[in-house]
Amino acid sequence: MPTETMVRLTDLRKRFGKNIGLDGISLTIEPGEVFGYLGPNGAGKTTTIRILLGMLRPTSGTSEVLGLDSWRQPVEVHRLVGYVPGEPALYDRLTGHQHVAYCAHLRRRDDRKRSLELADRLGLDLERPARTLSRGNRQKLAVILAVMSRPRLLVLDEPTSGIDPLVQQVFHAILREHTAEGGSALFSSHVLGEVERVADRIGVVRKGRLVAVERLQDLAARSLHQVRARFAEDVPAEDFAGVPGLRDLVVDGRNLSCSAPQSALDSLLKRVSARRVEDFECAEAPLEDTFLSYYGMDRNGSTENTAAGRHAD
Predict the structure, then answer these.
(1) Which of 70, 170, 173, 276 could disulfide-link 54, Cβ–Cβ 3.0 to 4.6 Å?
(2) Domain limits at 183?
(3) Rounded distance, CA 174 to CA 26, Å?
(4) Does residue 238 share a domain with residue 156?
(5) Looking at the domain assignment, is residue 295 inside a domain?
(6) Is the model's pLDDT at 246 over the cut of 50?
(7) Contact (Cβ atoms closer than 8 angstroms) between residue 153 and residue 64
(8) Pair (228, 212) in one structural domain
(9) What is the CATH number of the domain that holds 60?
(10) One domain for residues 178 and 32
């Protein structure tokens, strides 16, 4: 039996006057999947989320959650979604317990037991008013309010901002439990290092366009290796320039350094071994370095001039 697609965005476009917010975004998210939505600030991630949640009307194209149109059927869509914004809007005078009771009343269900379990795991005191909470604890409360109703879809916009690394691990475990039960998640972030720990696929958005969709396992298969060699004598750079796939090649007298995909290692090693080698090092690069190299982004999320790569759904 085919499973019903959780999220389907089709040729989604949004203009703000003369400015283009989204330019033809198309993607799907399947049940049980975490989709990492990556890009620098201002790329269109939050605009996509607001359209998906029915907060913005697209200029053209469609946004659907389990076949429901986000703009035409927002109430039905909201019943299926838990949302964690990057900057949670909370009622300063209400305690965590009162936030839980209020949201549970809106959904017409009793989520108190689930909220207490989540608060215990995340280390949050629900007795405290929201105005007394640190940024990290406000984010924890937003996570509890989104997850406690066991929604079909979680929409997460920089969800662990301000949360310490140990609590992030707990959040990732909660997210894995959610997908194990058939739920899905859209995880928006500008930091690949966080997304790669939980995502099944990643999409890269840049200037309103989806420039690539990758499975994490496929990207890992193309992982780069950091290669360094020191020779007994000076070597010409031309000896190595013809190896296909090499990146950031630097040959400085007796020293060589480069980034090489696995497919280039055999050819590179043959050329290195043709010289007298005094020292050699080859180590697999972190997946984040591979990603940044392929998609022309630096560690701050800024784009470079590198070609974007393939675009697939």
Answers:
(1) 70
(2) 7-219
(3) 28
(4) no
(5) no
(6) yes
(7) no
(8) no
(9) 3.40.50.300
(10) yes
Is the model's pLDDT at 274 over the cut of 50? Answer: yes
Report d(CA 11, CA 100) in Å as an integer.
37
Domain tally, the chain: 2
- The answer to whether position 308 is within a domain reads no
This prediction's pTM? 0.77
Query: For the segment 192-236, what is each residue's pLDDT rounded down to a tens digit?
Result: 777 888 899 999 888 899 988 888 877 766 678 899 999 999 999
160 and 48 co-located in one domain = yes
Query: Structure tokens of 122?
Result: 């995340």
CATH number at residue 261: 3.30.70
* CA–CA separation, 313 and 24 (whole Å): 13
Q: What is the 3-state secondary structure (H, E, C) of the chain?
A: CCCCCCEEEEEEEEEECCEEEEEEEEEEECCCCEEEEECCCCCCHHHHHHHHCCCCCCCEEEEEECCEECCCCHHHHHHHEEEECCCCCCCCCCEHHHHHHHHHHHHCCCCHHHHHHHHHHHCCCCCCEHHHCCHHHHHHHHHHHHHCCCCCEEEEECCCCCCCHHHHHHHHHHHHHHHHCCCEEEEEECCHHHHCCCCCEEEEEECCEEEEEEEHHHHHHCCEEEEEEEECCCCCCHHHHCCCCCEEEEEECCEEEEEEEHHHHHHHHHHHHCCCEEEEEEEECCHHHHHHHHHCECCCCCECCCCCCCCCC
